[in-house]
Amino acid sequence: MSLTRRQVTTAALAAVPLSAAATPHAATAAAGSRPVRTIHLAGDSTAAQKYADAAPETGWGMALPFFLSKDVVVANHAVNGRSSKSFIDEGRLDAVLGAIRPGDFLLVQFGHNDSKAEDPTRYTEPWTTYQDHLRQYVDGARARGARPVLATSVERRRFDAEGNALRTHGDYPAAMRALAEVEGVALLDIEALSFALWQRLGAEETKKYFNWTATEQDNTHVNPPGAIAVARLVAGELLRRRLLAHRDVRRLDDEIPDSWISWPEA
């Protein structure tokens, strides 16, 4: 299946952080067309837009537009190294909430950096401050007529000597699941889904999905095949949870070429 140059350009622009791309609300929808909705993505380096100096490292948010229709676009606000706390403390959540509109989604994935107990600017405790900070995203989205969506962190690549995948996020996924249930928020359990995928692929095959190069063995960040695989999980869950309709999602069963991923200059 091929993609036109215009479609590739549109998908790439949809993945650029909001500060570098116009919001879809700035343009008026064509007569008779459905209104464009935006998925605002707040998260860390595993989801973030990457640039030429980081290739082949790829955030899964860069690949998500490949699975969405033209009526659903992605504003990728995720930033390397951020936790649910530091993203708020730096004013980034306020900026997202300033751009969000009724009918939009706020998709939140944090946890990788919340566990860094040695760094008080990022650390949160799973069952208290982590949940407290996540509530600020939930409440902020709802106050603006948007739909909050929580996503557990994509699992790292870690295996034991017998080839069994190992979980690495401690209590953070469970804390997010519990919060989602209490607050009535839609949950995409990407940690569980990615864990199952890595287990199915195995220790050797998963190297093809992570940022393994001649000079680096990175078991946290993915490359283009990994980003496409995780984005497919996210899009599938958005459909399964009925957050998006079938007409909003495409290519879930199609092979997506790695060449669709590009890294712009910073």
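[next item in queue]
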Amino acid sequence: MSEKENFLTIKENGSGELIIKKSIFIASIARTNSVEEANAFIQEISKKYRDATHNTFAYTIGLNDDQVKECDNGEPSGTAGIPELKALQLMKLKNVTVVVTRYFGGIKLGAGGLIRAYSNSVTNAVEKVGVIKRVLQQELLFSVPYNRFDEVDHYLKTNDVFIADTEYGVDVKIHIFLDDDDQEKTKTDLTNLLSGQIEFTKGQKRYNEIPVKDNNFHEQ
């Protein structure tokens, strides 16, 4: 499967807050699948925190960072939006918009301090909401007799195969989703397990969400 078909994004919309030298930084982050959705989110958060000193933002849309934009919103050039965008890209996140709101606390941070503050605000928010991997997978359907279900179920769970649905009728009908690269091996294993008494039907292709269990995004 092409790596471009799999990508990392945030698990859910949310926010994180940091206080740095009395300034409050609130990073609001959302999944956005288009520039229109990104702009709507930016407007929503900017309106929510319209009394703030700054509402800076960055977004990346598309699996190849096809459309990106950043804005310092009055902070010194290059100290807010670019660090936010780089933080998203460093974590390899796609289709995400972040708005970092600052309430100035009276102590200037300097250019280096601002870059770190805005970058860390994004990372902090991402760690709070979590990250998932969206994987394009193929659905396979097959039926097994009740007396063989437990061993098939054990095989699927042992091999981390995503079981989307199980229907109980004359036999047990199982819906699973697989990466393209895993289909042949799984079909062969199940065929051998059931001594050839199995038939597969292809269903739909869809993106499934797999939790990323740690913050080592670079290794995903």
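[queue empty]
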